[in-house]
Each structure stands twice: as C-alpha cells, then as structure tokens.
Amino acid sequence: MIAAQDLHTEFQFPQEAESQLSSDTDLEDPDGKNAKTGKGVAAKKGKKALGDKAKGGGAGRVTGPGWVNGHHQENGMENMTLFEVVKMGKSATQSVVDDWIEAYKHDRDTTLLDLINFFIQCSGCKGAVSGEMFRHMQNSEIIRKMTEEFDEDSGDYPLTLSGPQWKKFRINFCDFIAVLVRQCQYSIIYDEYMMDTIISLLTGLSDSQVRAFRHTSTLAAMKLMTALVNVALNLSINMDNTQRQYEAERNKVIAKRANDRLELLLQKRKELQENQDEIENMMNAIFKGVFVHRYRDAIAEIRAICIEEIGVWMKLYSDAFLNDSYLKYVGWTMHDKQGEVRLKCLTALQGLFYNRELSTRLELFTSRFKDRIVSMTLDKEYDVAVQAIKLLTLVLQSSDEVLTAEDCESVYHLVYSAHRPIAIAAGEFLFKKLFSHRGPEEEGLPRRGRQSLNGSLIKTTVFFFLESELHEHGAYLVDSLWECASELLKDWETMISLLLDEPMPGEEALNDRQETALVEIMLCAIRQACECHPPVGRGTGKRVLTAKEKKTQLDDRTRVTEMFAVALPLLLAKYCVDIDKVTNLLQIPKFFDLDIYTTGRLEKHLDALLRQIWEVVDKHTDTEVLEACSTTYHYLCNEEFTIFNRVDIARSQLLDELVDKFNRLLEDFLQEGEEPDEDDAYQVLSTLKKITTFHNAHDLTKWDLFTSNYRLLNTGLQNGDMPEQIVVHAMQCTHYIILWHLAKVSDGTSVKGDMVTLRKQMRAFCLMCQRYINTINNAVKEQAFTILCDLLLIFSHQIMSSGREQLESLVYSPDSSLQAELLNFILDHVFIDQDDDNSTDGQQDDEASKIEALHKRRNLLAAYCKLIIYNVVEINTGADIFKQYMRYYNDYGDIIKETMSKTRQIDKIQCAKTLILSLQKLFNDMLSELGFNFDRSSSAFCGIKELARRFSLTFGLDQLKTREAIAMLHKDGIEFAFKEPSPQGEGSPPLNLAFLDILSEFSSKLIRQDKRTVHMYLERFMTFQMALQREDCWLPLISYRNSLQAGADDDTMSVISGISSRGSTVRSKKSKPATASKRKLPEGDSSDAVWMNREQNVQTPVMMHSPHLTSTVLRDPKKMRPEDSFTATFTMPAEQHPHQPVPPQQHIFLTCYFFVMRHSRRGSGLMEDDEEPIVEDVMMSSEDRLEDINEGMDFDTMDIDLPASKNRRERTELKPDYFDPSSIMDDSVGVFHFL
User: Fold this and answer.
1) What are the pLDDT digits (tens) for 351-362?
2) Residue 726's closest CA among 765, 698, 687, 699?
3) Cβ atoms within 10 A of the Cβ of 127, count?
4) What is the value of pTM for the model shown?
C-alpha cells in the first residue's frame, strides 16, 4: 500500500533515459476465458466496494516479480513509485506495464490503488489515496482531500514544468497510458473494475477547480480515449474478419462444412461484439464525462488537448467519429480566442483533408465552416494563418468547386506578405490553383521555348503579377513561388524567347506592359537563384548554405552567364529606349561569372554588350538608367579577370568623350555677353549628370574636373541665373572629386603636393557651399547644406583616427558663424508646419509629395545631428533641436531621441547643460509671448513641463551614472531661476522663478546626498523673506524645495546652509592633515561648474529657520556649554581671488558644505571603527576661535544636525569618488587649502 508519507513531494529527479518500447509480446488471451461480457461502464462516483470485488479482501499482498510492497523494483535494489519510474524513463514503458499487469493479477486492489496514486502524483499533489480512503470515501471527497495536499506556494506541476526532463515526462506519461490499454486490451479492460475505476477517477478529477488536476486528468482521459479507439478499431477489424470466415464456411457444401467451426466463429463474433459494445460504452463515458466539458475549458492548453485528440479519433476510426456530431466541436473551436487552440483545429482538419477518401465525407462541414477557414488566413497569429492556407490548399486539391473566386483571391494577395512562411504557403496555393491543371491539348507541347507548356505558365505568372497591381513587389512574388515553382522560374530560355522571338501565327503577343513585367520577374528569378536568400524585408538575413545548395547556386550562375552573355546585348538593342526595361536588364551582368567570357570564348558578346551600354548612355539622361550603366561598368572592370583591359578601354573612351563634350559645352555656355539658351543649358545639364553619375563609382580625378565645376558654381553664384539642376549636379560632382582625391591621399598613392591641393579645394568648396546656403532656391540650398554637413563630418578630427595622423592638415572645423548658419538653416527649413512647406510647388495636397517632403526634411535634420554626435559643432547647439522634441515628435522624435542618447555617451554633463538650456530657451520664448504674469496652467507652460518630464526619463534608472550631470542640470536651472530680478520691484518673485516648477521634474533623479547639496545651493539665492512667502507666485519655489527635501528625511539631516555648533558636531578626534582631503581643481574656465561662487553679483543670502532634528551623535550634555548651541550665518563675496585667504564666514560655510560632500563620499572605513569622526573639526582650533567668529555675526543662527550613525551602511554602498566636489567648485574658491 502506498502511504502519503512515502511520497516524494518535490519534482527533482535524475536525468531521464530514453524509453524503448519492446515488441508486443503481450498478455493476449485468445480464448477469451478472462473476458467479461457485462455491458456498460461503471462510471461510479459513489463508494468503491473494494472488499466485494478484490481478491483477498485487502489482506496480505501477493506481488508480481517487478513489484515490491507497492513499489517498482529496479535491479532488486531500489523501490520507486510508479510516478518515479515513469518520470525517470530508465525502464522501457512496456516492461513497466507488464510488471504492473502481473502484480494486478495477484493483488488487483493494491495495484489499482498504485495506479490511482500515479495519476494523483502526476498532477503535482503531495498526498496519496490510502486504502481506507478508497473504501469508505466517495470520489468527490477523495478529490477534496487531495486538493488540500497541494503546495499553495507554487502553481507549477509536472505538465507545466520546463526543461527537457519534464518534456520527456509528458511523453512517457502518454506512452504509459497507451501501452497500458494496449497490453490489457484482451482481458483486464473488460473486468468491469480497472477501467470503471480509472474512468470514474479521471472524470472526477477533470471536473476539479484545481488546474493541475483538471489538466493532468484531461490529458490522461484523452490519451485513454485514443488508446480505446485503437482497441475498438482492432475489434472492428477482427469482427469483419470473423464475419468473412463465417460466411465462407457457411457457403461451403454441407459435406465440407464444419459445424464446430461455425459455432466457434459465431461465439467469437458474439464475444467480439460484446467487447465492442463495452469499449463503446467506455468511450461514450469519457467523451460525455470529460471531452464535452473540457473542450471549452478556461485553460487554452486543455482545450487544445481535446481538439488534438478528437482529430486523431476521426482519422483513426472514421466510421465512428467522422460525422457531423463530432466535427461540430472542431468547427466551433475554430473561433477560439487563443491561437494555440485554433492551430490544433487546423492541423486536425489537415489530417482529414489529406486523405481523399475522408475528404469526400466533409462536404457539409466544409460548406458550413469554409468562410471561417478563409478568414483565418489573415489570423493575427502567423502560425495559424500558415496552417489555414495549407488547409485551403488541401481543400483545393480535393475539389475545385468548393472555393469560389473571391475565396481564392483572398489568399492570392498573401504572396506579397512580409512574413515568409505565409507567403510560401500562399505561393503553393497559387501554384496549385493556376499552374497544376493541364488540359489534354497541353500534353504534347515541347518542354522549352515559346510554344512550351512553361511558356503558357510564364504568361500566366505575368498576368497575375499585373492584375495584383503591386508592380514593385516582383521579388516577393518570385520568392513566394520559389519553393514550389523554381523550375518554372529558372526557365530563362523560355523567357528570352518570349521577349525576342516573333509570335507564331494566331498567337497573341505580349504588350509593352507585359514585357516590362516579364523582364522584372526574370531579373528577380536570376537574383533569387544566384544569391539564395529572400528579398529585403522578408527573412532575418543570409543563412549558411549546404553543400548541395552551393552546388546548385554555382550551376545556376553558370547557366545565367552562358545564356545572357549572348542574349543580353540583343535585349538591350531591342529595348534601348525603354527606361524600365533597360534599368532591369543592366542589373543582370552583376550576377555573371566573368571567367566564362574567356573560357567560353564569348569576347565578341562582351564587345557587343559594351557597345550597347555606350548607346544607352548616349540616349538616356534618366538617373536610374545612368546609375545602372555605371554599376555595370564597375562590376565588369575587375582587375581579377582577364576581361579588365577590354572593359577599361571602353570605359575610358566613353569618359573621354563625355569630359571633352562637357568642357566644350561649358566654354560656350559661360561666354561673356551671351545669354545661354535652353538647348545649351540642357546639353550642359545632361552631360554633367552623366559625368556625376559615373564619378560616384569611378575615379575620374585624372580628368581634373574640379576647375570647370568650381568655375560653373562661382559663375552661378555671381550671376544668380544658373539653372538649379546644373548647380545641384555641379555641387554633387565636386563633392565626388574631393572624396576621390581624399581616397588617394589616404591610401598613400598620391604624389607630393596633392594634400595641399586637396586642402585648398576642400576649403574653397566648403566656402562655396556656405554661400549657396543663403541663396533663394530651396533645392540648391538643401544640396549645399547636405554636402557641407558631409564634408564637415569627413574632414573633422575623426579623419586622423586609425593611425592616419598624416592627415591632420586636412582637418576643417566650422567657425561660430558657420555653425550659426547651419543651425538657422535647420530651424528655418526643418521645423516647419506641413502647410508652410513650399518645396513641392503647390502639390501639397498630394499625399505622396507630403511624404517625400518629410523624408527630405528628416535627411537634413539627420545630417546636422551627426555633426552634434561626432562633436563637429558645439553640443549646446543641440538645445534648439532638443526643444522641438515634443512639438515635432511624430516627424523627428526618433532622430532627436537618438541624438540625445549619443551626446550623453560623449559628455554627460554637457548633454545635461544642453537639455536645461533648451528648456530655458522655451521658457524665455513663452515669457516673450505671454508676459511675466503668465498662467502656470497654460498649455505653453504645461508643454515645457511635459518636455522636462520626457527629458528626465531619458536619464534612466541608474542614478549614480548620471549623478554629476543631474547635479549640474539643477545648478544651471537654479541660477537661471534667480538670474533676473522681478520687474515689479523688490519683494516680488524673480522673473524666472516659475522655472523651478519645471526643474522639479528632475528632482527624482537626484540621490539623497545630492538633494541636500542642491538645497544648500538653492538657499544661497534665497533671502529670509523668500522663505516666509506663501503666496501663489512663490509656489514654484515651495514645490521645488519640497521635491529636494522628499526622501532625505530618513537620514535625519536638515538640509540647511548653516553651520553646526560644537554641541552638534561629531565625537571629537584629532583632525586629519589638510592635505588628505585636497583635490586638484579642473583647469580652464570653470565658471559653468562653480557652485559656491558666481562671477555675477548676487544678493547675500540669509538663512531661514527650519525644524531642528536631533542628532544621535551629540556630545554628552554634561560637557556642553550654553554657547555651543548656535550656528552663524554668513555672507559670501561675489568674487574671491584664488590666492586670498577665505574669510571666516566663508570658511565656516565651506566647511559645512564639505561636511555634506565628505559624508556622501565616505568609504568603508566607518564600517570598522565606529569612533572615527564623520567630519574633521578643521575650522576651530580653540573655543575662543569660534567665539571670535560669532561676535561678527548679526544674523539669526541655525543648527545643522549631523547624520545619524545608523546610516553608515548606506554611505558605504556609494561609490567613494563618484561625486567629486571639485567638479562643482570654482577655481576662485581656495577652499582646498584649508581642508
């Protein structure tokens, strides 16, 4: 008997081993001696009459060979529960089942109880069912008792646990149930005891509110049902065989008829029928007791189990289950909310439609649920959509009449889906629908050529491509059809024949639009064959090809080269004037294997190709065509191949002719005193455009084009009447000239003096572009701006990186005037409303033109932001960019956010100063617009505050990383708030005081120690009267002070700018040498980093009273004197020479300040010595010294309480040198000489 205390309650077991099923040497009982003939399933939920049915009545055990005391024995050494044996998987499932059956024959009550506890343990329950419980408690009571044994701390159970061990357990669990039924199918399952008990238990568990019970029992019941379906199927086959044997024996003549055999056959058929009826009763009990309730369970995984298994039943035993009574459950569940369940429905139906015999019995179901299946092709779950398309493909194969044209069209367009599995499934559907049906007249057609079957199919593909009206997605269509129709798409011979050969009599020729589509499809098929990866936007990238795929790729590339080396010149000659066709055709050579030109003796075809390219360049001025020609020359001019000299000569002859023509036309065009006509301008423009396009991919420096282009640009600037396109292309050409010159200098292939020439040309061209930025024409200004930004970036200090220090003389940094011009250009041409953009010449109503204009503006902004990121221009110039973040978030939000992120990586403090500067600019703009009496609830002010909140979020969660930057941001904000006095006179708040309300958005980014320091700095600007004000106009100050005090109270330290009396100082100890706390101040102008001293005059702050906080480190009251309970306030000069001694008042304040700073910077020293002073008493050498200082003070006094020692642990967690006070101290304050 398995007792509860014997069970393992934790699911941590050794690694499982592979379970191997032995052959079916089962416990067959061919004579049926042990088979019971009683009908029905005792799906009992009442009490178990264990004593009535059990052999031995539960007395002493008689166990089988593999079962000891209710536990399985492994090698005679280890006793394990059935759950442990199945989970570990070290024993073959069939051997475990055989041992259990043998034990069941000797003591079925105890062995069955082991099986019951097996299901309980598989559910993750800690408890176990005892024999006493089983005999005297009902199922519901047992389940309720087991529910109480669950681990409430964890919702995991074996079927939901992750890891390979538990995945294997699920497989072993299902195998165990299947093998158990299979081994018991001839006797034990008919004893009206085992199956009745198991079905009753699983039915009760499946109705439990505990998910683990419900999930595990449903899986067990469904697998049990599947095993019973197999048994019923075998019984049905045996009955048919017995019936045939009986009929054959009965049809014999009487003399040869064996009556004994007839009686045996009749008896066997009767027994089989009885067994069949009993199995059907069991299946009905499981179906009605479990499936009908659980197929709509709240848990999607349980519903998926039910649908998956009913699909198996209908496929295995179609005579019993493949009818509308069962199919309706699958149809209903296709509307499930969870994709996992919908996916199981589709896979179940695929198994049925794949069998043509079964598919004919699904007509009613198909007509009822076809629309739902079609709609699932657009399912939000990609896996479900793929399987829905595959199911429709099977439906299409079973019958052409089921799917209407509208149904098919809803699948056709999915070949253009960005999700490749969906597109491939749709491509297979399209191929089956359009290309798989052959009429009798097509059987005798040739395999290749215009009159072949492929010719007809290629035309069909072209027609489909045009009708889809997605002409720019030819690569997607080819990729979708590649797996099922690659042989068709690789029939380039037929495609060439369709383009070059004359149509046969009676044949309809392709029109111009169809020929253009065919050329595009042909190019896409060539690219797919040679590159072997999906088009851009479909797929995650290039994958590693197998050896077979590499061989196929090489073979296809060889075929392409051999075929199109001959055909391409002919195609170019025929379609020379067609822009679209020529552009696509000129992309084919980049997929050639250029060695074949030599090995295949195809040089004459290469010459023909070069002549045709020359003709194309001569006849066309379209940029796309010229770029295709330039790219083709660049690919063919490869020094690794023997054809290089031949191609290089042709290219040089072409460029010589273009340059000579350009120089000749330019002389005529720039003649003084003559007005150039439109024809001359067109000739100059077309020639310049060709030279510029070729200069992008080819080095034309030997033709010295800089002089002529610079002359052209200078003339246009002086006269102001130069056509805009000529100026634009002249700028672009000059840009390429400088870049090619730089490439030669960088490679070390230049001659002496080239660097000086390059420096002069680059600077002259930059000045030229700067002058063109101020012209009238938008296209010219945008081109000049873009090129100027690129040149400033290329010739910045970055040019010396990677060991290129010899290029230092080429560094060009923009002066302040150029930086201002660039920034003004961005503000005037980028941050504008859509309706104000006149660059589209009255076509703003066109949505496409709006998108194009926005794209141009984004490029301009990105070009300038790169200058900020790479520190070409000052980072603070980004303030005017950052302040537009909220207003133009939809258009440029991603660019501005990325710029802020990059600048923060360069310099955190300078980035923070830039952010606060942008907020200050917005605040000043608001004051100019609304006046100083503005409403703080106005949309303008709320917008600035929201922008500050967004800025604050960009600093992230790690406060230590941004500590100094945030502190500097608050410093600048405080200074700005108190910078301007009130226009209403004394007693009114400063003009910019409301800015503190904006600044409070950053207070949460300060750590507690820094909040004290910032608060002390804030109080330097405050008078005593300010601290007492409570009017609405002073609310920003109040709220900002509250934000600085929030979270700092736990440290029991008052953040007040005063000095503690000796009575509130820490335990006295000898002070450390002053040099121990000295830190070197940063060199250079540190006026932006000063906290304690400012260059401009400020009012002398007067400290206000605040509640006194009791310190835990106060001196013994007996040793305190009455005069020890005061603190002096002080004045601080506006200017202080760095070498002058600090006045006593300032000395006191600075020592107090450094108490705070040192307290925030203390290391782990305090962890060991509790008596070590937190701050050194460096400001007084005697009590008289303090009294002398006090005599000169006329202000109210205040105490500063020192931090409690309980915070030592918190202080040690801070990085000791992360917040360096030297970074916020002015050089003019010589405090470090005193500490």
Assistant:
1) 999 988 888 889
2) 687
3) 19
4) 0.72
